[in-house]
Amino acid sequence: MFPGRKRMTSGAMGDISEAKVMKLGPQEGKESGPKVFRSKAKILKSGAPVDSYVHIVVVGSSKCGKTCLIKSFKGEPWPPTSNYRSTPCLADVRFLGGSKKSMIWDMDARPDFLEARREAYEETDIILLCFDIRGESTLSEQTEQWLQEIKTHRPHTPIMLVGLKQETRYDRSLQGQITEVEANQLKIDRGLEAYMEASAFHRSGVVEIFEAAVGITVGNGLCNKVMWRDRGFRLPLAFTGGFL
Hints:
Elements (H helix, E strand, L loop, with lengths): L4 E2 L33 H4 L10 E7 L5 H8 L14 E8 L2 E9 L7 H8 L4 E7 L6 H15 L5 E6 L15 H10 L4 E5 L7 H15 L1 E2 L2 H5 L14
């Protein structure tokens, strides 16, 4: 268990593959997908204790595909129609016959947003470090600055390495793609929790990444959300629907 974490009594990691994203039922004129809250202020309000939710931060170089990963997970139509906003969203992920509320932060990669990332890192349970497998930049170039930043601001938090744009593995016109062997070697060398790949375009492997993140987090024990609890914030007990 990582320092500063509280072991949950029901925290056996179990079979990650059992986890399923809870989606809205079909509704006329609405997209089906996890219910999402656009505002941190609206996420953190009276309701369920904040200690019970999984805090997931998603980082990676600009245009690596992390925003499309989250939009695909949320069930948004392809191609994405909304502009990028570095805001958290809230979704229920089924786990071991129940569900875990998960707050997912899509972080802006620009240097000017370091302070915002530092805030997001506080009391996060797991970090998804994303990269573009097409290899326009090397794996080291895409990940080293993030590994150093995480080591500085959140050294004991588990990290999942996530390769994106998996559909390009079948494009024979591309050369220099980052291989699974390279990525798995980085995972071993840097002590990362897991390596997974996904295609937001094909919606392949997307849900499984967030299932795995929740499973790893619950297995390690959730962080005590002291910062949020001391400020009097709570999560909603139930979703009220749609985008806010």
